[in-house]
Write a structure and sequence with these properties.
By secondary structure, this protein is mainly alpha-helical.
């Protein structure tokens, strides 16, 4: 009970801090926190698309180890490390708020005020965990063992959501978006945790390639890539259709989204299948 009260207090304190920020305070007071959180979810989603592009660009150099190692030396500059840590706030918030939306839509959890507090509180907790691992920079864990736990936890979460929504009247595309999101809620934060639990496995091209050539890890990477790409494409398309009426503008944006997803898919599949 004491732990729950402390976490609730953390979430409340964070909301009070955010309410003092000029732009957020204005929208929170005039439109409510649901409106603010909805916009933050979309903005962090777009930010994660950019993050995914940078990640794929970095990994695309694995075929030339000297180039990859040079890129990683840049990645470990203090300012770049800070932005890498800041990305954990995007990952944590988007995943946790996605979980909140799934609980709201499919499991009848309608206490939004409490769930929003937990979303912010756990986002900060996750970022602090990543920060501690990044500062320690000396941990090590078996890749297969870690991903056995994380991968099947993600599958179990996806299955729970699928069993809940599959017989509803929503389109198959919508259902796949929620199911892929349920898997990614576990898999993407776990991916960041793994990277900083095993810093040596990310710093040198040979170590990364050796890990990715493991059959089980290759399969995990493939499922993660397919889920992320579908979720990315559908998410961007949903944003576009919300703000663009049918016509040339929507068609153009949809085509651009398709190009982005195809390019990302080419890079991701090349890495997972042919590295």
């Amino acid at each position: 009970m004491k732990v729950l009260e402390e976490r609730r207090g953390l979430g409340t304190t964070l909301l009070q801090i955010l309410e003092k920020l000029p732009i957020l305070s204005c929208y929170a007071k005039t439109h409510g926190w649901n409106y603010v959180v909805s916009w933050l979810h979309r903005l962090t989603g777009i930010g994660l698309v950019i993050y995914l592009g940078v990640h794929l660009y970095t990994l695309s150099s694995l075929s030339t180890p000297s180039v990859y190692d040079a890129k990683m030396r840049v990645m470990y500059l203090p300012i770049v490390v800070f932005f890498a840590w800041a990305s954990s706030l995007m990952v944590g918030f988007h995943a946790l708020n996605g979980g909140r939306l799934i609980l709201y839509e499919s499991f009848g959890s309608r206490n939004d005020e409490t769930m929003i507090r937990w979303t912010f509180g756990l986002t900060v907790s996750y970022a602090l965990l990543l920060g501690i691992l990044m500062l320690m920079n000396n941990q090590n864990v078996s890749a297969v063992f870690f991903w056995l736990l994380a991968f099947f936890a993600g599958l179990a979460t996806a299955y729970a959501v699928a069993s809940r929504i599959w017989n509803t009247k929503h389109s198959a595309w919508w259902k796949l978006q929620r199911i892929s999101g349920a898997f990614l809620i576990i898999a993407v934060p776990a991916h960041l945790v793994f990277s900083h639990l095993n810093p040596a496995m990310a710093q040198e091209a040979q170590a990364v390639v050796a890990r990715m050539q493991n059959v089980f890890i290759r399969f995990v990477d493939l499922v993660l890539a397919v889920s992320a790409l579908y979720h990315t494409g559908y998410g961007l398309y949903s944003i576009a259709t919300d703000y663009l009426s049918a016509g040339a503008a929507r068609t153009t944006v949809t085509a651009l989204i398709a190009v982005v997803v195809v390019v990302f898919a080419f890079l991701a599949l090349k890495l997972t299948l042919f590295i």
